[in-house]
């Protein structure tokens, strides 16, 4: 029996059993999130010191503990830290939301970008900017949050037919995306030139001038939704087998589906409200994560942390290397999409999950 | 606990494990099965046969609580299956849908391990029982050497063995299989049915299988249930059910019934389609 039990173990796997707790740990599924977490910390540290006003590492550390010079402390703690925090949190939220959608729908196309949720947020935000007449203030994030949630609920309601079918979800999502995109275009054609310009910056996704006011609500949303998402992880591995097999294995499919969609919509809405629809993070990152960790589905934690790496890294690049300060969304799209293409061309895997 | 402990070694023949009581089934408004009664006893091996579209797969889905009857009810061990927590059902009743799909990149070992899902919890994700059950299921189905291979790289026959291995690891007394031989060549059809027959004979599993091939159904099952147009036509031993009359009535087929030269079970030799 022991001999055969050994054969069940997959390469690179350690079995953990402590009292009633047991599980299988695979080194790639630990190494990738760990590596990503280290990368986020390093990138953030570099990012705190870089920009139009470079600050040395020692001064950055002094500012962080409140011993720095007043100007430096303001730049590090008041300007750069919240910006980096928002970037990292947005990356986590979008990465996890994308992984949830893609696993659940068994379709790598199913990401909040494609399903119209971020577009719905854009419609809300642009409406607030154009119709409200003011380009700043709390109004825009709230309108974006509302737009994303309304689109997400519509998606859930319209795709619902005694449970959710993955294909139906993607088709309904694409239709919702088209409606929201038309709404954005219509609003932009009516807008004053000044409003249109600020609306355009918003819908590209940007971390410019983000403060703790954006970071704190996002952190609260993540603190609530992330544990729920991680708790769903085990069931998602079975849901991925298709409805009949999953129910045969004792999964309460309908409530699981509803919960997963609601959590993913919530994460997306919170992220988009804070930084606008930063493109392709939710689409690309889970696919990168699944190829790095191996295995049959995008791992949630690794997707979240790699999302943070992408957003924080892209933000650092836009502020330092590139001659003009671009919105971060431009770079995530420009870097993320070709990287996915490269993985697709190189790998043996088909495009399906 | 090994699989043996979970498996009834002595079939308590006669006890009804799974029953349909005047069950009617419909997809949206289209009624597929009307007022059907069926009892499946412990340790039996039943094959449901019938022409395409007669409702046999639909009936199997209802027996496996995948489809809720519009009227009537399905009873598992005397309890309404619709009101039993699905996790509890999953520890007693396993099912293999027609052409199940495994996610790309999933290994055979991981697929079989998923069969333990109803026995696991968030904290207890891989107990010794789980590991032992999976190891034994892999060995028993001769899949241990392929445990680290992705399911999508296997041949059709091997893939079906992997799924049956998963159902075995689930450790349920009852096993429902929907056309497990679809898309397989004849030798692999035999291979899969031999495996299912061994599950029945050596593991004491109560097996219900939907099959198209009447000769194979007659050879492996102890009891045949013939359906036509959403109703149960007749049920009994293969000899009782497979008659020239029934083939004409249910399958519109003129045929001779001869004894199978290997097993002696009835064998259908088609002559021509009637009408």
Strand-helix topology:
The complex is a heterodimer of chains A (353) and B (275).
Chain A: H1 2-8, E1 13-18, E2 21-26, H2 27-49, H3 57-64, H4 70-105, H5 117-132, H6 139-159, H7 166-190, H8 193-204, H9 212-239, H10 243-248, H11 253-275, H12 281-293, H13 300-320, H14 328-346
Antiparallel strand pairs in A: 1-2
Helix pairs in contact in A: 2-4, 2-13, 3-4, 4-9, 4-11, 4-12, 4-13, 5-6, 5-7, 5-8, 5-11, 6-7, 6-11, 9-11, 12-13, 12-14, 13-14
Chain B: H1 3-6, E1 16-27, E2 30-41, E3 45-49, H2 56-63, E4 71-76, E5 79-80, H3 86-92, E6 93-96, H4 108-114, H5 128-140, H6 156-169, E7 174-178, H7 186-203, E8 206-210, H8 214-220, E9 223-228, E10 231-236, H9 238-241, H10 244-251, E11 253-259, E12 266-273
Parallel strand pairs in B: 3-8, 3-9, 6-7, 7-8
Antiparallel strand pairs in B: 1-2, 1-4, 4-5, 9-10, 11-12
Helix pairs in contact in B: 4-6, 5-6, 6-7
Explained architecture:
The complex is a heterodimer of chains A (353) and B (275). By secondary structure, chain A is mainly alpha-helical. Chain A contains 14 helices and two strands; from the N terminus they run αββααααααααααααα. Chain A has a single domain, classed as ABC transporter involved in vitamin B12 uptake, BtuC, CATH 1.10.3470. Chain A has a two-stranded antiparallel ribbon with strand order 1-2. In chain A, β1 and β2 form a beta hairpin. Chain B contains ten helices and twelve strands. In chain B, α4 runs parallel beside α6, α5 runs antiparallel to α6 and α6 packs parallel to α7. Chain B has 275 residues and is of the alpha/beta class. Chains A and B meet through α1, β1, β2, α9 and α10 of A and α3, β6, α4 and α5 of B.
């Amino acid at each position: 029996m022991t001999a055969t039990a050994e054969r069940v173990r997959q390469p690179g796997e350690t079995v953990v059993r402590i009292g009633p707790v047991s599980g299988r740990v695979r080194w790639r599924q630990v190494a990738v999130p760990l590596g990503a977490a280290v990368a986020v910390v390093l990138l953030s540290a570099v990012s705190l010191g870089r920009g139009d006003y470079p600050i040395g590492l020692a001064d950055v550390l002094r500012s962080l503990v409140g011993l720095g010079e007043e100007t430096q402390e303001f730049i590090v703690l008041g300007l750069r830290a919240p910006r980096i925090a928002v970037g990292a949190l947005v990356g986590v939220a979008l990465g996890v939301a994308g992984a949830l959608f893609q696993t659940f729908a068994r379709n790598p196309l199913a990401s909040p970008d494609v399903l119209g949720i971020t577009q719905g947020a854009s419609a809300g935000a642009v409406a607030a900017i154009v119709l409200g007449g003011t380009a700043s203030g709390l109004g825009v994030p709230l309108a974006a949050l509302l737009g994303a949630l309304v689109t997400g609920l519509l998606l859930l309601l319209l795709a619902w037919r005694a449970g959710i079918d993955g294909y139906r979800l993607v088709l309904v999502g694409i239709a919702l995306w088209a409606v929201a995109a038309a709404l954005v275009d219509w609003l932009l054609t009516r807008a004053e030139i000044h409003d249109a310009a600020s609306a355009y910056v918003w819908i590209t996704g940007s971390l410019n001038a983000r403060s703790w006011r954006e970071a704190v609500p996002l952190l609260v949303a993540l603190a609530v939704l992330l544990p729920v998402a991680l708790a769903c992880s085990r069931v998602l591995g079975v849901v991925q087998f298709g409805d009949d097999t999953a129910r045969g294995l004792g999964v309460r499919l309908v409530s699981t589906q509803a919960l997963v969609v609601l959590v993913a919509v919530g994460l997306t809405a919170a992220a988009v409200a804070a930084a606008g629809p930063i493109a392709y993070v939710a689409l690309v990152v889970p696919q990168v994560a699944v190829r790095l960790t191996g295995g049959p589905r995008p791992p949630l934690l690794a997707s979240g942390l790699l999302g943070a790496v992408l957003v924080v890294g892209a933000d650092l690049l836009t502020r330092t290397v590139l001659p003009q300060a671009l919105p971060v969304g431009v770079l995530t799209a420009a870097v993320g999409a070709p990287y996915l293409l490269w993985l697709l061309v190189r790998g043996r895997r088909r495009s399906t999950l | 606990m090994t699989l043996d402990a979970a498996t009834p070694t002595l079939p308590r023949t006669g006890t009804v494990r799974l029953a349909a009581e005047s069950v009617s089934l419909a997809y949206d408004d289209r009624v597929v099965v009307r007022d059907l009664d069926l009892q499946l006893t412990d340790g039996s091996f039943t094959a449901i046969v019938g022409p395409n579209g007669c409702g046999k797969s639909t009936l199997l889905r209802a027996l496996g609580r995948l489809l809720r009857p519009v009227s009537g009810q399905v009873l598992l061990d005397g309890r309404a299956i619709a009101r039993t927590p699905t996790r509890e059902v999953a520890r007693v009743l396993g099912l293999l849908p027609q052409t199940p799909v495994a996610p790309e990149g999933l290994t055979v070992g991981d697929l079989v391990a998923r069969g333990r899902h109803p026995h696991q919890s968030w904290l207890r994700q891989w107990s010794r029982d789980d590991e032992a059950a999976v190891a034994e299921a892999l060995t028993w189905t001769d899949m241990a050497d392929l445990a680290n291979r992705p399911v999508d790289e296997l041949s059709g026959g091997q893939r079906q063995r992997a799924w049956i291995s998963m159902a075995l690891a689930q450790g349920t007394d009852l096993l429902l299989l929907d056309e497990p031989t679809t898309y397989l060549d004849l030798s692999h059809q035999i291979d899969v049915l031999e495996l299912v027959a061994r599950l029945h004979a050596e593991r004491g599993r109560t097996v219900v299988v939907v099959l198209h091939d009447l000769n194979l159904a007659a050879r492996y099952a102890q009891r045949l249930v013939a359906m036509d147009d959403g109703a149960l036509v007749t049920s009994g031993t293969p000899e009782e059910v497979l008659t020239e009359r029934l083939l004409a009535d249910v399958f519109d087929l003129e045929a001779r019934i001869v004894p199978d030269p290997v097993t002696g079970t009835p064998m259908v030799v088609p002559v021509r389609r009637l009408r």
